Amino acid sequence: MVLPNLCQTAFTVLRQVEPIIVLEMLGSTLFDTALALVVKDRCANATYPDLSREDSQQKAMTDFFMAYNLIIRLAPIIPALLLAKLSDRGRRKAPIVVPLGGYVLSRLGLLLVVIFRLPVEVMFGAAVLFGLSGGFCAYWPGVMTLASLGSTATDRSKVMMRVELLYGLAGLVGSLVSGHLFLLYTASLGEGIILLIVSLLLHLLCLLHSIFLLQVKHVSDREPEENCHLLSHTPDNTAVVEAPAGINMVNVVMLFMAAILYDFAVGGAIEILGVFVMKEPLSWSATQIGYGNAAGCTIFLTSFLGVILFRRCISDVMLILIGMISFASGIYFMSFVTATYMFYLGTTLTFLQLALKFAGLAYIPAFTKIYQRTLDWFPGFVFTLASIFTVLGMIPISIVGCRSPQRRQKDSERLTHQL
């Protein structure tokens, strides 16, 4: 009697979205480590006038990742919108299944690059295929939509936090083992091939799971399905109500500015950080790169614990400012890192979840070029710059948070009256 119940429970769990989250994150962390190390190897012989050999390698690597990451962010825009619209019409699995196919193709692309010693620029084509499948821009909203549909209104926040926690734990485990797997090789399989095969198999298993096992679960007491859209819309027979001029618009503009400044700082710094740790004086090995990525994944765990412990004690604004202060201080500390232990002292304050992917269109080339221009006199200058932008982003949030409760109540009453 116990065994059938366990089997039924296991089958029920397998039909949920959580196994897909774990498998995808495990495969992605393995791939990220492999890509960084393959690019480092292919750029080892790069030469540029007036630059040392190591600085030439750094320039070649940052140029590659600048182009690669811009493609990753640009290519999915239209496909992600189309998949979102398809999901809104009832095909809830489409934004998950199609991007996972792109994940498989891009991982296969890097495996072929390593096996056949193809130019690393082939990965630009793999990035295009990944983007045309919708990429992460389509995959993650699709995952969150299914998680939301399968929960009640009262339990939804807990479900979302569980999803974030699983995502972070999977990333932590995958990152810790990625460097060790990269170093495994046999006479017939060179260095890195085993790691990429495991990554490809994880994504292939994830794709098959999403096609054959994943269930779109509808909880009866949730909000009506017509309100659960990836692309919000207003029925034709409903008048569009615009917020009266002056009500909260200043807050919206300032928070938007804060978000752009913060994401510009975080995104730009993190893009460079993966390359920075490979140069002297750190000169990280494969295992150290994996450990460093694992440190980044701890943000999901620390943010989860932070919300649980402090949300009853301090306001949301204070939670945001604490996070921004931690990043500003941590990334500034990174400017002067000369040893691995110093890196981990900085990362305990640094990593926060990234958002606003469109900001990457600005910060990726900006931080890349600044890093290349300062390689010879102050390679850590980009991290100082990121710290400054973070502090600037805190200013509008502080202004919004300091507005009196009476003013916020007054705005709310005016809005309610006019609606």
From TrEMBL:
InterPro entries: MFS (IPR011701), MFS_trans_sf (IPR036259). GO terms for cellular component: membrane. The keyword Transmembrane helix applies. It is a multi-pass membrane protein. It is found in: Membrane. SUPFAM superfamilies: MFS general substrate transporter. The keyword Transmembrane applies. GO terms for molecular function: transmembrane transporter activity. This is Thymic stromal cotransporter homolog isoform X2. It comes from Lates calcarifer. The gene is LOC108886026.
